[in-house]
């Protein structure tokens, strides 16, 4: 089964955010977002950062 980050991109659109906003606010590096754009795997640590970022967004 191939990786697919489409749900993440949809959530960014719903929140009227761009990838650079997620990079800045979640403390990610641009290479990580580039990997995700190509549907390549990321570490669980980075996945956790992204999850925490979106959980914080949902609380607001």
Query: What gap, in angstroms, lies between the N and C termini?
Result: 34 Å
> Spans of 5+ residues with little confidence (pLDDT < 50)?
none
Residue share in helices?
Answer: 55-70%
Shape: globular
Total number of helices: 4
The total beta strand count reads 0
Spatial extent as radius of gyration: 11 Å
Query: Would you tell me the structural class of the helices and strands?
Result: mainly alpha
pLDDT average, as an integer?
Answer: 87
Q: How do the helices and strands follow one another from N- to C-terminus?
A: HHHH
- Total domain modules: 1
Strand content: under 5%
Largest sheet report? none
Structure description:
With 60 residues, the chain is mainly α. The chain has one domain (6-59). Helices cover 68% and strands 0% of the residues. The protein contains four helices and no strands. It has helices at 6-14, 19-26, 30-37, 44-59. The N and C termini lie far apart (34 Å). 5% of the residues are buried.
């Amino acid at each position: 089964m191939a990786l697919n980050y489409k749900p993440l991109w949809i959530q960014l659109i719903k929140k009227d955010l761009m990838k650079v906003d997620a990079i800045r606010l979640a403390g990610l590096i641009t290479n990580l977002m580039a990997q995700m754009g190509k549907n390549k795997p990321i570490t669980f640590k980075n996945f956790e950062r992204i999850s925490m970022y979106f959980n914080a967004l949902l609380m607001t």
